[in-house]
Write a structure and sequence with these properties.
By secondary structure, the chain is mainly alpha-helical. The chain has a domain of 160 residues. Helices cover 67% and strands 0% of the residues. The protein has 7 helices and no strands. The radius of gyration is 38 Å and the shape is elongated.
């Protein structure tokens, strides 16, 4: 009898436990809590911070400067004199870079990179100033003016493609500067016009300049990463 009494007492307890388990299994899973929101309703979860842009290399900066100069020549924002001055300075930076690399097994030290970047920063400011100073290359609609513009376009294309180095460009632009000054002086002496003899002289000088542009664009000297010469 004692055994039966214990059995019947334990039965309600077992039933209660089983019922509690069943009730727990029937409860819906708790809904996921939404991310906390800011006052304007957007999620306050911080957005991923974009990785900082990589700094351009020395070679990339040099190419960027040449592209800017080429665009200025093409648009007429840079005169031949301004272009010659810029390219002379760019050639000096390139020569210094080449010498530094040769002295260090083809590499640049951190101090050398810092110095060259400082020089390129100054170049960048001068390119901008020269392109926005109001001096423009305006050759007019005459045949002489068209030849002057054509020569500038050919030089700009050579700079853009890398076929012309900074030093070569400086020499070509100095040549164009001399021709342009001669044309300006001749016009001033003749009421804004050129005589037949002056036109022939200018065309002869432009023929020589044209050959010079061709030769420099098709020699072995190129900018780094230049397009293959045709």
């Amino acid at each position: 009898m004692k055994f039966l009494s214990m059995k019947w007492c334990a039965l309600p307890v077992a039933l209660l436990i089983a019922g509690g388990v069943a009730m727990a299994q029937d409860q819906p899973a708790p809904a996921p809590q939404p991310a906390p929101q800011s006052q304007n309703g957007s999620s306050s979860t911080p957005a991923a911070t974009p990785a900082p842009a990589a700094k351009p290399t020395i070679a990339q900066r040099k190419e960027n400067q040449q592209d800017r100069i080429a665009n200025g020549v093409k648009s007429g924002q840079l005169t031949p004199g301004e272009t010659a001055n810029l390219e002379t300075k760019e050639a000096a930076i390139n020569g210094e870079t080449k010498a530094d690399r040769a002295a260090n097994g083809g590499k640049l030290t951190s101090a050398e990179k810092t110095q060259i970047n400082g020089q390129q920063n100054q170049m960048s400011k001068q390119i901008y100033a020269d392109k926005h100073n109001g001096n423009t290359a305006n050759y007019g609609n005459s045949k002489v003016g068209q030849r002057q513009q054509n020569q500038q376009n050919r030089i700009a294309q050579g700079v853009k493609s890398g076929q012309l180095t900074a030093g070569e460009t400086a020499k070509l632009e100095n040549q164009q500067k001399g021709i342009n000054q001669q044309v300006k002086a001749d016009r001033a002496a003749n009421g804004g016009k050129l005589t037949t003899g002056e036109k022939q002289q200018v065309n002869k000088e432009q023929n020589a300049a044209s050959k010079n542009i061709y030769n420099k664009k098709h020699n072995a000297n190129t900018q780094p990463n230049a397009k293959p010469k045709s």
